[in-house]
Amino acid sequence: MNMTWNLDSLYPSFESEKLRGDRELLSQHIIDLKAWAEGNLKREGVSTAAIEDFLRLYNDYKSVYVCLLAYAELTLSADSRCEEAMNLADDIEHLSSEITGVVAGFKRWVSSCDHIDELIISSPYLMEHQFYLKERLLQSRYDLSEEVEVAISRMQSTGSKAWSRLYMERTSSTLADIVVEGETRQVTLAELKSMAYENNAALRKAAYEAEAEAYSRIADVCAACLNGISGEAITIYGMRGYQTPLEKVLVTSRMDIGTLSAMLTALKESLPTFHTYYQKKAELLGYPGRLPFYDIFAPVGAENGKITYSDARDTIVASFTTFSEELASFAQKAFDQQWIDAEPRAGKGGYGLCIDIFPIGESRIMTQFTGNAMDISILAHELGHAYHSSCLTKETMLNTDYPIPIAETASIFCETIVNQALITSSTKKEALLILERSISDAGYYLVDFYARYLFELKLYERRTLGPLSVQELNELMIACMVEAYGDSIDLDTIHPYMWMSKIGYFIAGNEFLNFPYSFGLLFSKGLYAEYLEKGEDFVACYHQFLSATSKHDIADVAKIMNVDVHSIDFWRSALKLIEGDIAALINAM
Predict the structure, then answer these.
(1) 339: closest CA among 148, 575, 63, 70?
(2) Which whole-number Å values give the CA distances from 318 to 93, 330, 390, in the listed order?
(3) 466-492 confidence digits (pLDDT tens)
(4) I want to staple 575 with a disulfide (CB 3.0 to 4.6 A). Which of 108, 182, 270, 499 is the partner?
(5) Sheet containing 340-341: which strands, arranged edge to edge?
(6) Nearest Cα to Cα of residue 320 among 368, 372, 390
(7) Burial (CB count <10 Å: 0-12, 13-18, 19+), residue 569
(8) Are 73 and 355 in contact (CB under 8 A)?
């Protein structure tokens, strides 16, 4: 079974006529947008027709831009040293900077209108884009002058985005030696990380130590990347008027501080229960004291050997069928049409990825499939992202953005479907192993991601005073891990380079890619409980919910599912479901 993706529906090659044609078309769209700006932004008054013209031109531009950039980014993700992809990405980013001023000018122009609501109501096309327009108005308060916006966009290409690419290249090409079944092998960091789920305890420990050694070799480069990216973020967001990078993330995530505070308060209350789980896991694995960190994801019983990629596909499709035929058929299509690159290899990014290509109605997914049970969850997670986007294919390009916390809800919901289907169809012993893995995953999204959140929060506080050395970053990471995991983990086994393995810290413009996963896990747990109660009636409502996510803020779209995200009791109730699983596991084992 083919484990690499096919990008031909985008472009057959970098030299193809289709790609060259789209590159020329993108340039023409930029010319058209500039002409629109010249003809409208200097005029007095805002008209319905002019707003409609801009939206149509910008939708056309986005439809081409997304395809070109996706092709470059997907190729780079699979081969970090592909020069053609690097050149195309740089070219597209440079071109896009030419309309940064146009977009900023449009937002300022629209915000000058004191009767924008009347204009929107007067036009079906503007009504279709009402949420987009209102969000642009809200965010216009953080915009700078057109000249400064253009300068920032161009400088980021050789600033934070260049630092991001350097990090990706170094981490994807770094290799380490490890002995597997008596044979010394050179493996990638991603392959080392996947060994945390192996049955062989000695291999788990050796892989963890090899990972720490490999990261130590590139620590100085990664520290420079992190300092460059975070320093730029602080400077630019400060210029825009954000108090902190976290405020910027909340605004762009359509989430308020009240929601985040309610969720984090409930999460912190639940940490002792997770500490109890880790203490029990140490006992199950035969440790007299605390759990070594290299065994935090270890299976607590012998799992049934390696899983083939075709077995993983069949398991996912069969599990999705228990929820809906539509979801199962979608997953089958993704495998059949080679939307997935799952082959482990050097030069490939060591992370899960889903890039949605709305103009062609497809997505592409990247994982590193090594045959462990965890790989099924990762595939289900990324397919959840792709399915979410498939619910928005009837929208225009400007109406396809949705908040990351909700995106992670859809992906983790699909993980939950698979886990529950496997538990239902397994023997009692197998079901306990799956339940433990499910709890382990929850701990990852809640406890580990809480540590990541704390690290990033404190990183930005410290970064305002200047760059952080490798030693300072190491010490900060350890301190945050201790705060999250408490005394349930053997602190001497936490290697200090953990910050280097968190790709979210290194994605320019996407700060705090941590709490959205905690939100997604808890929100999806609450939704799955509703599904178990309502059955088929829930499925249609869930599809409606996903279809509405690009045109609502988080609090409003949650109301479709009768959820109040400001209520700490909602988050506590979701956590109680996990606490119940932990109690059941401890009692059974």
Answers:
(1) 70
(2) 41, 12, 20
(3) 999 999 999 999 999 999 999 999 999
(4) 270
(5) 340-341, 362-366, 353-357
(6) 390
(7) exposed
(8) yes
